[in-house]
Backbone:
């Protein structure tokens, strides 16, 4: 491949990865569903354990890329890893960009039609562009490439489709459980001297606002603030990370319904 064409290919892969990451920020995460593929599994882990998709994507794809590099094709492995690394970088950056006003979400944050449809169209377009660039999106594509190298009678796209169907089925069950528990959440009462800073983090990082109540410490007599905030269960770890950044702040929780 000529140097100019190679650079153009890398640029296209990089931009496509950012577009795919943007669809996660605007349509996937706000609606609590998981796409197909390895990133779908990573998304489910994020919902359940709070481990970011940007981190899990690299942890899963790096060893698979090394296997593909040794067994299948070095150029494909390199181009695919560029996509995976760019996708993780884009997610890590965009998660800190205030895009809430552009995101689509239903009132209860569990869109089952429009959110998945738009995300599917965008990611389908990204997938086709990446394939035409002589690369893949990593994850199950790596697995399919490894299987195809040993069992060439199984077509690469057929293997990818079948494995993605399995992940989509798992995702449906996870999303269904989210829907059934959608009216259950966690209420926090936060006692702090830094209500404005914490409120802004809750709004921009979790997508939830808070109600501020003025209070008074009865032992010290010092004025303080109490923030009332309701968040989704899957956001508990991220919430704790926010609170830990503010010394002297403490919070207690209770389960809420309806």
Residues:
């Amino acid at each position: 491949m000529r140097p100019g064409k190679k650079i153009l290919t890398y640029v296209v892969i990089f931009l496509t990865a950012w577009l795919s990451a943007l669809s996660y920020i605007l349509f996937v995460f706000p609606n609590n569903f998981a796409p197909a593929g390895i990133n779908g599994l990573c998304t489910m882990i994020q919902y359940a354990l709070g481990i970011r998709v940007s981190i899990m994507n690299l942890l899963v794809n790096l060893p698979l890329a090394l296997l593909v590099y040794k067994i299948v094709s070095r150029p494909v492995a390199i181009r695919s890893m560029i996509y995976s690394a760019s996708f993780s970088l884009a997610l890590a950056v965009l998660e800190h960009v205030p895009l809430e006003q552009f995101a689509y979400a239903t009132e209860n944050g569990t869109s089952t039609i429009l959110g998945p449809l738009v995300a599917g169209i965008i990611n389908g377009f990204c997938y086709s562009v990446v394939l035409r660039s002589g690369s893949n999106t990593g994850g199950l594509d790596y697995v399919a490439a490894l299987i195809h190298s040993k069992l060439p009678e199984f077509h690469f796209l057929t293997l990818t489709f079948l494995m993605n169907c399995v992940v989509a089925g798992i995702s449906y069950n996870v999303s269904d459980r989210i829907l059934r528990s959608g009216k259950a959440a966690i209420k926090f009462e936060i006692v702090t001297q830094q209500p404005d800073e914490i409120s802004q983090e809750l709004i921009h990082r979790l997508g939830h606002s808070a109600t501020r109540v003025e209070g008074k410490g009865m032992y010290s007599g010092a004025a303080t603030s109490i923030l009332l905030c309701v968040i989704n269960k899957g956001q508990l770890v991220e919430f704790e990370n926010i609170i830990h950044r503010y010394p002297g702040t403490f919070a207690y929780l209770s389960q809420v319904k309806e």
Residues 3-28 form the longest helix (26 residues).
